[in-house]
Structures are given as C-alpha cells and as structure tokens.
Amino acid sequence: MNSGKSVILAVLILSLFSWSCASTAKDKSVAEKPAQVATPAAAMGSMLADMHTAKQVGCEACHGTVGNVVDDNEQPVNANCVKCHITHSNVGKKTTGHINPHKSHLGEINCTTCHHGHTPSQLYCLNCHSFVDMKIPAGEGTGKPIAAPWPVEQLAVDQTDVVVIGAGAAGFTAAITAHDAGVKVILLEKQPITGGNSMLAAGGMNAAETKFQKEKGIKDSVDLMIKDTMTGGNNINDLELVMILAKNSSASVAWLTSLGADLSDVGRMGGSSVNRTHRPKGGSAVGANIVDTLRRNAAERKIDVRVNSKVVNILENAEGTVTGVQVEGKHRGLYTINAKAVVLTAGGFSANPEKVAFYRPEFKGMITSNQPGATGDGMDLGAEAGAELKDMKEIQIHPTVAAGSRILITEAVRGNGAIMVNREGKRFVNELTTRDKASVAILAQTGKSAFMIFDEGVRQSLKQIDGYFHLKLVRKGETPEALAAKINVPAQALKETIETYNQAFDKKDDAEFKRPDMPRPLRTPKYYAIEIKPGVHYTMGGLKINTEAQVIAKDGKPIAGFYAAGEVTGGVHGTNRLGGNSISETITFGRIAGANAAKLAKSAPDE
Ligand code: MEZ
What we know:
By secondary structure, the chain is α/β, with parallel strands linked by helices. It is 34% helix and 16% strand. It contains 20 helices and 21 strands. The chain is globular, with a radius of gyration of 25 Å. Mean pLDDT is 86; it is low at 1-45 and 133-154. The protein binds (2E)-2-methylbut-2-enedioic acid (MEZ). (2E)-2-methylbut-2-enedioic acid binds next to helix 14.
C-alpha cells in the first residue's frame, strides 16, 4: 500500500473511531457505566486504548465528554485515569516480579508520560535504565530524548500574561508565584513528563538559618552560606547573586513547606561548613517530594501546564521587547503564544554530549547523571533572543555515578558517613571535599573508579539508599573482609581502612584526610559497597541575569519582558556548584522571576 492510501485508511479508521466514541457518549463517567464499543483502536495496533476497549470501557473514560479535544495540557486525560484507578501508582500495583517502573523516584507521574493510548507506549524510563527483559537493574540507556512526531498546523495564537518555558522546579515555582500574584500563566514542557532534572534531585536543598536547623541546634548563618558558596565556586561566582541565594534560602524552604513539601531532615554536602541540606524525613530524595508538591499545587490552581510542547522561538518586537513564544505541540502543532513576560527555566546541557565536548573536550564520552531533556536548547533560545552567556566552560563532574549506569549515588551517602576506597582498599581523599576535587581524585585511581563503602548504620540513616538496593547496585558482606572478596579488593587493607576510619571517628580527628564531619562510625554489619565513577552532572554556565532575575543582553542592559531562573542561568555557582545549592537556586530565583514577570504583566496594557 502506498503512503497516500495508508493516510486515507488511517483517516477512515480515525473517523470510525470518533463516530464510535460519539455514539457511545453519555454524561456519566464510564467508571459508573461501562459503555459497549467496537474496537477500531485495536485495528490501529494501539496499546492502552486497546486494553480499555477490550474491557468494554468507552472512549469517554479517557477523553471525557465527547467533543473534547486532547491537547497539550494532558491533565484532563490523566485526571480521568485517576477517576477510575484512584491514583496513578495504583495502576502500577499490578506490576510484580520485576523492577516496577511505576514505583520510582520520579514521583506520581502521569499515565500519558509513557502511554500514548493509540500508539505503542514509549517507556520514559528507558532513557536512563536499560531493563532488558526487566532483569538488568540499571544501564546507560539510550540517553536520547524520545522523538515525538510534531504535526505542523496553521499558526494559531493563544494569549496569556506570563509564559514559563521548562517545567522543572524553577519553572513550576515561577508559574505558581506568578499565578498567585494574580496573572494568567502557561507553563510549557518539551518532555512528555514534567519535573526536569529537579525530579531526580537526591541530596537536598541548601538553606541557612531555617526553622529546621534551629530545631536541631545547628548554628548556621547567611554569611557562612555565602562564604561556602563563594569558596566552592573558586570565588568567580557573581557575589550579588550568591547573596540573594543565601539571604532568601530560609524563606524558600518556608515557602515550599507551606505548599506541603517535607524538608525536615537536615544533612551535609561537600563544601558546606555545617549541616544545611534540607530533605524529607528519614533522608528520602528531595526531588520527587518537591516536584510532586509543585505539580499538585499547579494542578490545584488549574495552571495550564502543557507537556510535549517545545518552544522553538522566543518572539521579540522591533524594540527588542520579548512578546511571546512559538511552540511545537504534540497535539496542536506549531502555534504562537503572545505574552507580556516570558520566564526561561529550561535547565542545563549535561545530557548534550556534543555541547559538553564543545566546551570541555576532555569530558567527551563521559556518562551523565541527567535526564534526557537536559540538552541546552533553552539556553540556545535565550542566546538567540540576545542574552549574554556566561561561564559556559564551567561544567561540573559529580564524583559518584554508579559505574556502568547513569544513576547518581547521592552525596548524602557520604554526608551520612560513607567513605571511598580505591582498588587497593585504601581511602584516598576527604570524602566531603568539593565535587571538582573529589572527581579529580577518583580519576587518578586505578581503573578511574572507586568504591563507596558504608555499613548498616549509614543505610538506616538515609532512606534513599533503599533505591540503590532496588536497582541492585549494591554489593554486601557480613564483614569488611567478606565485602572485600565481593568487590575484589585486598581484604586486610579494607579491614584496616575501616578500623582506621573508626578510630578517627572516636578521636573526632581525621588526621589522614581532614574530613570535617564524621557523623557515625562504620561498625554495624552488614557492610556495603557501590562502585562509582565521575559523570557530567551540572552546567554552571548559562544566561546572565541580575538580582531581579532579568536576562541581561550583550550591551549589559536587561532585555525587557525576559526573565530566567535555575540551571539555564550562569553566575551563581562560579567554577563549581556546591551540592544542595541547585534546588535552592531554582526555588529562590524561580520565585523572584515569577513575581517580577507577574508585576510587569500587571503593569502592561492589554493588547
Ligand atoms: O545538588 C546536587 O547536585 C546534589 C545534592 C546531588 C547529590 O549528590 O545528591
């Protein structure tokens, strides 16, 4: 059959399908009264739609009242899934016997992220994991974003006050803040799932002088956070931005908490002088908690969140004022959104190997810990709109990505007491030094990798470690010697290393490596090891902004109507970001960008 005939057949099948949906439509939800329908979807080789029609569940169960168009805001469809299945994760409870993609670090993700109804499902997880027969725990994945067929239609035009590009923590924060200031917001996400890298954030959010620190008797100060951040960034950071970061950090924790996030546990990351990294009780990963909170709050406010919506152009008028965006939407095709202000929160480019190698040839071919959407196209859009780029060569290598995978082993494991040993079974660095120094030290060891070693005490102190067991990344032994045999390092050396570390803990003095904090000894069997290697984790460079989150042009002046926040910007972190400062930056600068965009939109006349 030639392609013309296939298209005609497809149109006929679609018409039949629409007719069949229309003919079975009733006002009642299908959960109450399943409708009898034919299964034209099955003829199209569909997946989820097939399953539902085979069970006599009608089209309106997913699509609502017939006549409703499925558009790039897929929330209505997903809300219908929840109507029948109670929660999204509930649907996945039937998945047993292998690693369950529904039970993940991504939070409560929507069905449409993976399941497309009328075409085969595309498992988003395969971007990072390679579950061959669902047996291999973690692999490098394809690392490529899922290609979506973008239908290009006529240029329709939507109007709004504020457009936010990129639905990670910074984007959601800006959108919620702008909405709460009383303006209409559209939040766009090019991936099929919201959350960006923020939903993978593990260790926590840095903040000084918080209620949670005070409750735990931790003495911290805004000045100390500024000092640590500047020292970590080798003092090339933009001091004014760092001051904003630190001064607002406690208020940002309070804001997130007021929305329902749990940031009550406080730990330590490398380069911080005190415990200031906030995360959920028991030490769960911070990202899923924060992103779920933001997703829920956006949904409660009925903010228009559109996934599979890639911005291809930031529009400007003759005076250079930003006036909106052009978008390619999965369902809508190419269209325009006119807006009074645009906030760019599209993240960094760690998952773009060509761009990484362009700026840092020595990192060519290195694995990344990032989600596949972190390709830096948002940064390109900003540059095309006239933004000055800053610190682009500053790319952070995270020391501890699980070897043979792109799974980040959070710095919090070291913060809570793990040590690192080389193939000779010996420690080689202060485990709580900054990431740049720790990475260089690991790459200097035999095999350019190392082992993170911890005991049951550390495991019990940090809930997110359970995830590494789930992914079968951990080797175990009843004794240090037994563990040594499993990971092929000299048993006597590993035993002595652990004993020496425990003595240092007793004396509160790590004479060998000057580790500043040893929260617990390694004396509680079992003993555990994860092999780790450095991987590309964060891009410190990006669009130049000022303290009002306005994007700065090459002439040093703010670009009217244009704001940015989060990893898409450069300047806050200098040459090296401290662990925990990223989520902090997204919330603080996301709030500033959202508030200022809303203020501008309110003052601008309606078209
Ligand atoms: O801020 C980060 O990148 C972070 C805390 C990572 C981690 O090791 O958990």
